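Hi R.,

Here's the chain you asked about this morning:
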Amino acid sequence: MNNELITKGQAAKKAARILAKLDTATKNKALATIADTIIEHESLILTANQQDLEAGRANGLSEAMLDRLLLTSPRLQTIAHDVRAVINLPDPIGEEFESRRLPNNLRISKRRIPIGVIGVIYESRPNVTIDISVLCLKSSNVAILRGGKESIYSNKALAETIQAGLQTAGLPADCVQLIESTDRALVKEMLRANGLIDMIIPRGGAALHKFAIENATVPVITGGMGICHLVVDQTADLSKVLPVTVNAKVQRPSVCNALDTLLVHQAVAAEILPQVAEALAPYKVELRCEPRALAILQNQPFVRAAGETDFDTEFLSLVMAVKVVDDMAEAIDHIYLHGSSHTDAIMTEDYGAAQQFVDEVNSAVVMVNASLRFNDGGQFGLGAEVAISTQPLHARGPMGLQELTTYKWVVLGNGQVRG
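And the predicted structure, written out as tokens:
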């Protein structure tokens, strides 16, 4: 196993024991110090980020990837604000729940405790370094971070900033550690670092998640890859459909909860699709249409026939697939066949249709008459998120503080023995 991983993993285990004993006030003080340090280190962070951007352009990174990589002064201000928002969130550690007294007078309950050492493997979004670190700290977990090589300078600067804040607050710098080696072999070693890492969260594309599932011996939480749908029902209010569609597609197209596929009921397709195309045209959104949608939109700009894989693609750019469906059943079948269980929404004024959609679409987040972009830890009131889980176990959707805990059973007795 790589020496850096061994050294940092062993240090993380020691730091985890210290973090587990901290009270809420101490953790909040550390978070406030980290937020202040981010602002103080702005010049250092942005200079490092510029190195990554220049290298990314030289290596041919797409505009979507460069947008994910970009840090600016306003984005750092937002990041610092989000750190402070976590201070105000309830600390889940120590919470007792499901308490009851048995007939033999034993009192049993569950108590929330940290998971321990959480390893996170992620790609080009350096803000993830902060999001994960502060949520891990508030939930008394140690973080071992392994970002992509395209963001290595930014991540180093951010990790150094976090560690400086920790030390100023009197906590071990080892509470947050960054794997600095960009050797891809380290990803596989992290996935198999039993005894050093207690849980792995991969944040990236389908290939990373597939690799993690196939190679991990450490427990893995998968998610973050979105093929997200918006269904327009025959009763949908056009005055709501247009702003929601535009927001879901263009507000930030390079992220996992951006709209990928628009499914429109055949009864309203001829009326709604041209107006959707017109609303998206100023943003130069390319519409990839199946035959019925293409027949309606063929004279609109930025329209082309859908390719074989377009309905199975997370575009992360100003591209959207479009399909006309006969009814709700066809729309739901399409989502089951092509979706990723991330975020799916319906526009409808029919309560029954809304309930059918919510009941039958088994995605981590299901929405009615709202933009898919709301699937976000900050927007859900979680402060931030470490990932958006699409798996059925442990946690689904945005993973905030409570999703970073496990529990222990606590049994209180008075000398009882088992007969």
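The chain has 14 helices and 16 strands.

Let me know if you need anything else.
M.
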